[in-house]
């Protein structure tokens, strides 16, 4: 899937620098900028982009909003409504449920000052809203981009190999067998023993594979020592 970020008339160079960095963090394929209010490769922009400054090569500037849009278009807004069709929304973690796996996913963000107009919103396929305090629901542009890209990353691009491996059912069975042997040796009360083992099982169900194996090694060594 091609991931495209569309910024409509961005106004702040610092925000844009942060967004360059975020685009590199979350592997955005293209950063489309519609009528920016500054030079996109300005020294101030690149300073705040930090190690993401080389991402400037993937930035494309457009004069037309329509020309910048591509594929499945998801607009974003802090202003939403349950009765206004244009402002009917979905939440970031529901995105994949609604749009599936499109060839191109365009995430559209409006101006820092006024966001997107109704006409611009109407050209999108979906409106995405990040819920926040009703007393102050409007997020900074780069913060909204960060939250949205993170949700997209979780739903579409995060590989299991990047995360700690979970133990298999076989690993859990072996661990519980050894734990059961030790509990039977040291806890005479059957009811208490069963309660302890239930607690142990719930605890290890949250462990990673490497954590479980370390605990199993310790229990196995204890069991071997006791056997003599």
Q: Main sheet: which strands, in order across?
A: 3-2-1-5-4-6
pLDDT < 50 stretches = none
Residue share in helix: 40-55%
Count, helices: 9
CATH architecture of the largest domain: 3-Layer(aba) Sandwich
Number of strands: 6
Order of helices and strands: EHEHEHEHEHEHHHH
Strand content: 5-15%
Nearest-angstrom radius of gyration? Answer: 26 Å
Mean pLDDT: 91
Please give the CATH class of the largest domain. Alpha Beta
Q: Which shape, going by the Cα principal axes? A: elongated
Helical/strand content category: alpha/beta
GO molecular function: RNA binding; RNA methyltransferase activity
Domain tRNA/rRNA methyltransferase SpoU type: 3-150
Pfam families: SpoU_methylase
GO cellular component, one term: cytosol
Describe the structure.
- GO terms for molecular function: RNA binding; RNA methyltransferase activity.
- This is RNA methyltransferase.
- Helix content is 45%, strand content 13%.
- The protein folds into two domains: 2-158, 3-Layer(aba) Sandwich (Alpha/beta knot); 169-227.
- It has a six-stranded parallel β-sheet with strand order 3-2-1-5-4-6.
- By secondary structure, it is of the alpha/beta class.
- The protein contains nine helices and six strands, in the order E-H-E-H-E-H-E-H-E-H-E-H-H-H-H.
- The protein has helices at residues 13-25, 43-49, 65-68, 95-99, 118-122, 141-157, 169-186, 190-204, 209-227; strands at residues 2-8, 30-34, 59-62, 72-76, 104-109, 126-128.
- The longest helix is centred in the C-terminal third of the chain and has 19 residues, at 209-227.
């Amino acid at each position: 899937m091609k991931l495209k970020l569309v910024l409509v008339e961005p106004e702040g160079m610092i925000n844009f620098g942060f967004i360059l960095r975020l685009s590199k963090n979350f592997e955005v394929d293209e950063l489309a900028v519609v009528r920016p209010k500054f030079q996109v490769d300005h020294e101030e922009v690149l300073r705040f982009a930090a190690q993401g400054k080389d991402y400037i090569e993937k930035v494309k500037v457009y004069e037309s909003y329509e020309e910048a849009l591509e594929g499945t278009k998801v607009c974003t807004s802090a202003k939403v409504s349950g009765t206004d069709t244009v402002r009917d929304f979905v939440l970031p973690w529901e995105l994949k449920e609604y749009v599936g796996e499109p060839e191109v996913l365009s995430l559209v963000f409006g101006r820092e000052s006024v966001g997107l107009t109704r006409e611009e919103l109407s050209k999108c396929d979906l409106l995405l809203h990040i819920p926040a305090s009703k007393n102050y629901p409007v997020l900074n542009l780069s913060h909204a981009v960060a939250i949205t890209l993170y949700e997209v990353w979780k739903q579409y691009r995060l590989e299991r190999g990047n995360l700690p491996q979970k133990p298999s059912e076989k690993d859990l069975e072996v661990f519980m067998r050894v734990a059961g042997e030790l509990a039977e040796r040291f806890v005479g009360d059957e009811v208490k023993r069963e309660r302890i083992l239930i607690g142990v099982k719930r605890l290890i169900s949250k462990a990673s594979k490497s954590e479980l194996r370390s605990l199993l090694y310790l229990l196995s060594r204890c069991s071997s020592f006791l056997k003599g």
